[in-house]
Amino acid sequence: MAATELTAPGQGRGLLDVLANRYLLRLIVRKEVQVRYRGSVLGILWSYIKPAVQFGVFYVAMGVFLGLNKGMENYAVYLFSGIIAMNFFNEAFGNAARSIVGNGNLIKKIYLPRELFPASSLWVAFIHFVPQVIVLLVACVFTGWVPNLWELGAVLAGFLIIGIFALGLGVVFATANVFFRDAENIVDLLVMVATWASPVLYVWTMVREAAPWLVNLYFLNPLTVAVELFHYGFWHPTVTSGGTWEIPPHLFSVWTPAALVISVAFLVLGDVVFRRFEGNFAQEL
User: Fold this and answer.
1) Where are the beta strands (DSSP E) in the chain?
2) Helices 256-277 and 149-179: crossing angle, nearest 10°?
3) Does residue 5 belong to any structural domain of this protein?
């Protein structure tokens, strides 16, 4: 009998195992959704309530008190399109980073591809992202949203950037969190900073005016690019003039490809780090 190649116990093929175990992925996603809303009166309605409250607070604080809605047509659409983009990232990244420790009891009992857990967090975040997009689309239609293929492609590109980047960062911090529980505090800080480090509540030109030397570094943040792509796809078709907003130079020719490359690089890094240390997860947990 020909000898078969042996693999080290507890080690898998990383993200390839996720693709090969789609049935298990669906089970984990279903379990995560059920656990989250167990005992909840409103259930999935929280996917509408939370962004609605966020939007109300930010609109009053930034739009009314600070006057950002003045001179900007349909500022509400501009603001909400950025909010749902960041909500998608924050939930996918935060839950993915906690997914291994959160499922520690299951990981210690049986072996299954461990990257299924952060991948399932991305899918759960997508489930909550869809209702928010529906609300945004309704608002866009009422404000005259008639997008072309280029603008729809911008939304798709922004969605891919956020998903890939969130999963990559989530896998890295999910690994770190097993060995250093302080990683959760870093995740909380990054989630808090992410909204303010991207043009969600303000216009990117404010960065250019306040610190011109910072603009290139600012757009090396994939989330900045993704939010601007959401603005271009959702908000831009609803206005007759940009007002205080203008399309960032080289958004499509330079910054979007760069954001995709950076996001994929983080995903590859996360996969390598995860596979390197996952054999020790059970004993550390």
Assistant:
1) none
2) 30
3) no
Nearest to residue 77, comparing CAs of 231, 253, 181, 206?
231
Map tokens 């409250």 to a residue: 53
d(CA 6, CA 244): 61
The answer to whether residue 284 sits within a structural domain is no
Q: Which of 242, 201, 235, 232 is nearest to 83 (CA)?
A: 201
> Is residue 283, in this structure, part of any structural domain at all?
no
Cα(42)–Cα(142) distance, integer angstroms: 27
How many Å apart are CA 37 and CA 26, to the nearest integer?
A: 17
Return the structure tokens found at 148.
Answer: 């072309």
The verdict on residue 62 lying in a domain is yes
pTM of the model: 0.89
Q: How many domains does the chain have?
A: 1
Domain that holds residue 251: 15-28+43-277
- pLDDT digits 0-9 by tens, 229-241: 999 999 989 887 6
Burial of 138 (0-12, 13-18, 19+ CB in 10 A): exposed
